[in-house]
Amino acid sequence: MSDTTDSGPMLAADGTPLKRSLARALRRQKIRALMLVAPLLLFVILTFIMPIASMLMRSVDNEMVGEILPQTVVEIQNWDANSGELPDEAVYAAFAADLVQAVKNKEHTKLGSRLNYEQTGLSSMFRQSGRKVKNWDPVTDGPFKEKLIKAHKGWGEIETWAAIKTHSSKYTSGYFLNAIDMQKTPQGIAAQPEDKQILITLFIRTLKMSLIITGCCILLAYPVAWILANLPARSANLLMILVLLPFWTSLLVRTSAWKVMLQQQGVINEVLVWLGIVADDNRLEIINNQFGTIVAMTHILLPFMILPMYSVMQTIQPTYLRAAKSLGATNWTAFWRVYFPQSIPGIGAGSILVFILAIGYYITPEIVGGTDGVFISNRIAYHISKSLNWGLAAALGAILLAVVLVLYWAYDKIVGIDNVKLG
Amino acid sequence: MAKDTAGNAFVKFDRVQKSYDGETLVVKDLNLEMPKGEFLTMLGPSGSGKTTCLMMLAGFETATHGDILLDGVSINNIPPHKRGIGMVFQNYALFPHMTIAENLAFPLEVRKIGKSDREQKVKHALEMVEMGAFGGRRPAQLSGGQQQRVALARALVFEPELVLMDEPLGALDKQLREKMQFEITDLAHRLGITVVYVTHDQTEALTMSDRVAVFNDGRIQQLAPPDQLYEQPENSFVAQFIGENNTMEGVVKEIKNGVAVVQLDGGELIDCTPVNVSKPGERTRVSIRPERVEYNKARLQEGAHTLKATVREFIYMGDIFRTRLSVAGNDDFIIKTRNAPDQDRLQPGQEIEIGWLTADCRALDA
Ligand SMILES: Nc1ncnc2c1ncn2[C@@H]1O[C@H](COP(=O)(O)OP(=O)(O)OP(=O)(O)O)[C@@H](O)[C@H]1O
Ligand SMILES: [Mg+2]
Fold first, then answer.
1. A331 vs chain B: nearest CA distance in angstroms?
2. What's the confidence (pLDDT) of residue A2?
3. Given an 8 Å threshold on Cβ–Cβ distance, is B58 in contact with A320?
4. Is B18 in the pocket of ligand 1 (CB under 6 A)?
5. Of A340, A345, B115, B324, which is least surrounded by CB within 10 A?
């Protein structure tokens, strides 16, 4: 009944559909915006996203076994690890061929230490056998089963071959299992032996201590932020410089300063002994344990709590408190019912910041944490620089990242990220 | 509890002074008495100390000197939350994290009033300001006028006897403002509450109040009902500040029978009511309202002095005519006449003679 020409798409002045000309106009804007951020984007991709991605890949990557023992991993598929018998000659022959090649390429020790993560002893087996098989000819010198077992009696054990078979696939969940104190065995997934189970404990300790540190930061930062927000501008600026002062000294210096303060012959203990509060032979142990880590890290992370709190509190007008009091609220009720709820976004922002920083902290626990005050990141650092088990380090890092993301997501669900103000 | 025996003042400022910095007095010697049920407006230019007075009454500032009495009891040492004074803030100060109903329930909760009673009162207060349907919303979801009404309801819900309002309509547009002015006075009279209202809009002050206190320079310049304030200003500040006003300067020649003869600086003589002058020879500023100037010979008082005037400009404003004259060397002398059928329109250049009732022409301080 109404005008039918109106039912088609809207047309721009030149006759093209309005949507398309709008899209064209917007595209130019988008391209310009993209060009502006391109340098940074490129920089971030190259220096941040790619390294992280490749690091994370290492947590499941298991190409080494397949690459160094290409024929073995094919042959060993025909062997049933639970049969109770050793693999047949074909597997040994393939392995001998691979090993000779690996020795030539000087790769057998690398493989040895990789497999050693799964089963101790394999590293030295590869090293010793490597010396012996150096001059074998894989084509003419067979059969190899006896020869290999003679070279090292480990090759006559089913567990050895089972380990090789379990870890012969291209990708592995082994590192992640290790990261949560489990391991992959030919019989399936099982718990690590008791004496190797430390990572879960470390994770829990990291989370617990980060929570405590965050809580301490909230308690200490809230009054400071409140004073900052309520002082006249000039005194507030002065106080702000004091808050920011720690940023101008090196983290290492600050942490070491805590060492000076807290150690048994340190400032605090000396003063306590001098005052007679603590006996000379019974000095407080307040460093190289969890207490030391908590104290030092609370101090170091405090500005990250104060700043977001301050920026939120600055926007809360003093008239709200006056209004509450005029309505009959005592100072405390006015604060608790009116001021505090409005300052929660600041607490939230500060807590996220401090918690995420704390959970991945490394230097401070390393220096003042002793053995029971270290974090999971200290373990990661150990696997990266000492044990060189990068796969496990990567798996631990990935789990840490996942924990942070989950917490962030939960926070968004509960408080709402939009409520977070960082400045 | 020392009851004030002198008079029945509900609110009393007794020689109150206030200084913020210890160098200048923001409020100098304030004396004010208000009976119960009065709607009193503090009017004055910016920085004249109105908010400061209100804050002292509410308890957010302490008086540097003097006493503030509420119902005969000095409240200088009573903390704000125990004064039981309702307050509407200029920016409303509705708590953003609470709904409207929660905002209203707040003063009842802190008074430990039971839940069902509370809900009853909140509902009643919201209906009173015609906001019954908005209880579940947040302040940010309301318009300025609606927020204003909620702020009013919140200040009234715990049934205070005294309510303070600091420029509550400052942020509203003209139309809404006029509507709210009416609603506030209506509500105040219906509930019989005592109101101290602060504004720097003189129309608002004149239309709403029982009495207006004109503030300037930390002092009350005049405290009077609106008509008296407008028609009988007591000094030249009030005359200038309230409404439109013509002033001329001169020297008192003589004072006789309640009439002062003033010689203007140009030599002309006029008759005035002496207000701030007492003896011949004093300098004075003479004030006369534009609508009280008469140029129709038939209506001029017999024997009174008149002045010669030249019409400069005639402005048609619909309900009134506004004519600018040159009088005694003053080119900005305004007269206003009603647009009535028998009113003639003056032409620029026309020579006329003007005069007024002696009572309307007031000789004030120079
Ligand atoms: N907290 C304060 N500290 C110092 N001086 C102040 C403070 N509050 C107000 N003053 C000063 O006191 C004087 C009176 O201020 P007040 O707020 O009472 O004025 P007002 O009459 O309410 O003005 P307005 O109409 O602009 O609101 C002003 O000169 C102001 O600068
Ligand atoms: Mg003010």
1. 8
2. 44
3. no
4. no
5. B115
* B28-52 residue pLDDT tens: 989 999 999 999 999 999 989 999 9
Q: DSSP label at A171?
A: B
pLDDT tens-digit map of B113-150: 999 999 999 999 998 888 889 999 999 999 888 998 89
Co-location of A169 and A221 in the same domain = no
Q: Is this complex's ipTM strictly greater than 0.95?
A: no
Q: What is the DSSP letter of A327?
A: T
Ligand 1 mutation pick, B48, B169, B197, max ligand atoms within 8 A of CB: B48
Q: The pTM is what?
A: 0.77
Q: How long a stretch of residues is chain B? A: 366
DSSP 3-state of B21: coil
Please write the tens of the pLDDT for every residue from A257-298: 888 888 888 888 899 999 988 888 888 888 888 999 999 999
- Can the peptide bond before residue A138 be classed as cis, meaning omega within 30 degrees of 0? no
Same domain, A110 and A225: no
Nearest CA to ligand 1 atom 2: B20
Q: In the structure, what pLDDT confidence band is assigned to residue B5 with cuts at 50, 70 and 90?
A: very low
Query: Cα–Cα distance between B246 and B290 in angstroms, integer?
Result: 7
Give yes or no: residues A190 and A204 share one domain.
no
Residues A126 and A19 in one domain: no
Q: Tell whether A73 and A144 lie within a shared domain.
A: yes
Closest CA to A224 of A209, A251, A244: A244
Pocket-testing residue among B17, B26, B221, ligand 1, by greatest number of atoms within 8 A of Cβ:
B26
CA atoms within 13 A on the CB side of A327: 33
Choosing from A144, A162, A196, the residue where a domain stops is A196
For B97, which of A324, A330, A342 is closest by C-beta distance? A342
From ligand 1's centre to the CA of A233, what distance in Å?
A: 18
Which atom of ligand 1 lies at the shortest distance from residue B198's CA? 22
Smallest CA separation from ligand 1 atom 25, residue: B46
Q: Total domain count for chain A?
A: 3
Nearest residue, CB atoms, B81 vs list A319, A320, A330: A330
How far, in Å, is the centroid of ligand 2 from the Cα of B213?
15
Q: Model confidence over A87-106: pLDDT tens digits?
A: 888 888 888 888 888 888 88
Encoding tokens for residue B176? 């809404």
d(CA A87, CA A156): 9
Whether residue A32 is found in the same domain as residue A126 = no
Q: Are residues A244 and A373 in the same domain?
A: yes
Mapped to the 3 state alphabet, what secondary structure does A329-386 carry? CCHHHHHHHHHHHHHHHHHHHHHHHHHHHHHCCCHHHHHHCCCCCCCHHHHHHHHHHC
d(CA A359, CA A328): 44
Residue B46, ligand 1, Cβ within 6 A: yes
Alpha helices in B26-74 (DSSP H): 50-58
For chain A, which residues lie within 8 Å of any Cβ of chain B, measuring from their own Cβ? 317, 319-320, 322-331, 333-334, 337-338, 341-342
Q: Can you give the residue range of the structural domain that contains A337?
A: 199-419
- Of A327, A334, A341, nearest to B154 by CB-CB distance is A327
From A58, A87, A103, give the residue that closes a domain.
Answer: A58
CB–CB of A325 and B80 under 8 A? Answer: yes
